[in-house]
Write a structure and sequence with these properties.
The protein is mainly β. The protein has a domain of 76 residues: Jelly Rolls, CATH 2.60.120. Helices cover 0% and strands 56% of the residues. A hairpin with an 8-residue loop joins β2 and β3.
Length: 124
């Protein structure tokens, strides 16, 4: 879709998902982003497959997440929390975080982030 400021509807089957490079079992689909003419907010959907393991990392931007389905573990700094459908997660910029899905069913969440550049740093 080209950059514009016009309203649109994107059907679920039109969203392309791709694996996230540094994570095992995580895929991402951009629902709305800058390339769609959204100047301030990007909306993405992530899927955590059974056994998925996303390493400790930080982002330069904040992100807010809404758990759509499943149950999985979110690590934030020194705390691990099991989240499930309907839970909300806020991760401030620069916060160490990670994900793990030890269950036999996939988990999924919506992630809202400010548009613009984001750099991900893996924690070693």
């Amino acid at each position: 879709m080209t950059k514009s400021s016009e309203a649109f509807v994107r059907r679920a089957e039109e969203i392309a998902y791709e694996p996230v490079g540094a994570a095992d079992g995580l895929s991402k689909g951009v629902l709305v982003g800058e390339e769609d003419g959204a100047p301030t907010l990007a909306l993405r959907r992530f899927t955590l497959e059974p056994g998925a393991d996303v390493p400790e990392h930080t982002n330069e931007i904040e992100h807010e997440q809404y758990v759509l389905e499943g149950e999985y573990v979110v690590g934030i700094e020194d705390t691990e929390v099991t989240v499930s459908t309907g839970d909300v997660v806020h991760i401030p910029a620069g916060t160490i975080h990670w994900y793990r899905n030890p269950n036999e069913e996939a988990g999924a969440f919506i992630c809202a982030v400010p548009t613009g550049d984001d750099e991900i740093h893996l924690v070693e």
